[in-house]
Amino acid sequence: PIYRQWKSAKAFAFHQSRKPVFSIDTPPPYVNTPIHIGHAATYTMMDFFARYQRMKGYEVLFPLGLDRNGLPIEIAAEKKFGVRFSEAGREKFLEMCRKVLEESSLASIDSFLRLGISFNSWEEGSNVGDVYYTDSDEYRALTQQTFIDLWNKGLIY
Known about the structure:
Layout: H1 2-9, E1 21-23, H2 37-55, E2 59-61, E3 65-66, H3 71-81, H4 85-88, H5 90-115, E4 132-133, H6 137-152
Parallel strand pairs: 1-2, 3-4
Helix pairs in contact: 3-5
């Protein structure tokens, strides 16, 4: 399929160049389950704008993020394994959550790829435009530093 060629060729990779930048910043979807029709519809619409801006000559920043934190992940783990947090213990429960995250993350990325969404990348990494996970150390450090910077500038109230 053509999407495999796009992936291997890094067809939509973000390159720092002299072109003007058009950025599409989206809240990352939870990966407590694979994506659903609402995600598909929303991201397909965003993809339309990404492709249009590329045709107009812009360098488009359109990264894929996956939200891997929060209660929806815990609820999905309890449902999948039929065990409540209070019964499993902390370490076992965290491992259950990691399994849910791994399966759902891979399924979500694969679904977006098969939809042909022109994200900059479909692989996790530290380059601009790579897939990012909200539970990664790099993401947490970046968001914490950004909050501190905004606080120090008096922009948080």
